[in-house]
Amino acid sequence: MDRFSEIKVIGGYIHLLKKDSCLRVTLPISEIVSGYDVVEHGEPVLSKDGLCIEFPDSSCTILPLPISELIPSSATKLGLSDIQQISSADIAGVHPVYLEMLEETGLELIGRSAVEIREEALNLATLVQPLLLHRYKGKIYCFGNIAAYNAAVSSGLDIELWGRFYTKKSAKSFFRSLVITEVYTQQLLSQATSKTPKALYQFQGRVLEHQSFGEEFKRIHTASNSKAKFARYFGVDARSL
Asked: Is the predicted pLDDT of residue 91 greater than 90, yes or no?
């Protein structure tokens, strides 16, 4: 979080400035202190560390206000909530707009994993890469990290996952961007090559087997340790592993 060096109040707004920087943040003072009155609450000042707004001369107690809580994050501006837990049973399915986009482009929905992945692994996977969720016509739908959602559905269990809600009303164009990101851009970023299956097979054999992973990760390793199964999943010849 940026540390500010100066605070000014002009026309009902607090202006926060940072020394030797063009950074400037403007906040309505009425949203910081309801019914703000300079006589009653006094002038706002910066805390010594430049991270909070304080009202030391207020006739009523006002706790220091962390500036980080007053400034929307870039994620918030995009309309994404903070990460939170959600039961897989509370998700109605893949978002209709996502499915519509797939139909238009001729792409296929990401299928279930060849290896059964259960709660411990899915909970951690969605903590690292949360599901993207949206309330649509009274139901909750998933439109991001579809692979993890499908794995949870395939398990037949009610699994606690991590997700973020998209909260803006005009969502269609954003959903379309997410579809492109998930089925195309992420694949490019993963840099998958013909050597990828062999590298993953070696990784699970040399690392997962010898580290203190939980029982769920050990089970996944055991289930996919067969070269034949692993090769079938990637559509390669087992002799190439």
From this structure: yes
Rg, the chain, Cα only: 25
- Give the closest residue to 101 by CA, choosing from 157, 167, 207, 178: 178
The tokens for 23 are: 């950074």
pLDDT in tens, 156-169: 888 999 999 887 76
pLDDT given for residue 114 in this prediction: 54
Domain residues for 61?
A: 6-71
Whether pLDDT at 53 is above 90: yes
Structure tokens, 117: 């992945």
Domain shared by 94 and 166, yes or no: yes
For residues 132 and 144, is the Cβ–Cβ distance under 8 A?
yes
Give residue 130's pLDDT.
94
Q: What whole-number distance in Å separates Cα of residue 83 and Cα of residue 179?
A: 20
Alpha helices for 79-214 (secondary structure H) = 96-105, 119-128, 146-155, 172-180, 186-189, 196-206
Quick one: 128 and 37 in the same domain?
A: no
- Domain end among 48, 71, 94: 71
| 172: Cα separation from own chain's centroid | 19
Rounded to the nearest 5°, which phi and psi values hold at 224?
A: -110, 10
Residue 94 belongs to a domain: yes
Instruction: For residue 1, tell me if it sits in a domain.
Output: no
Stated pTM of the model? 0.57
Mean pLDDT value across residues 160-184:
76
**Count of domains observed in the chain:** 3
Which pair of structure tokens corresponds to residue 87?
A: 């039961």
Give yes or no: residues 120 and 153 share one domain: yes
Residues contacting residue 152 through CB under 8 Å, at least 6 positions apart: 88, 122, 159, 161
Does residue 12 sit in the same domain as residue 55? yes
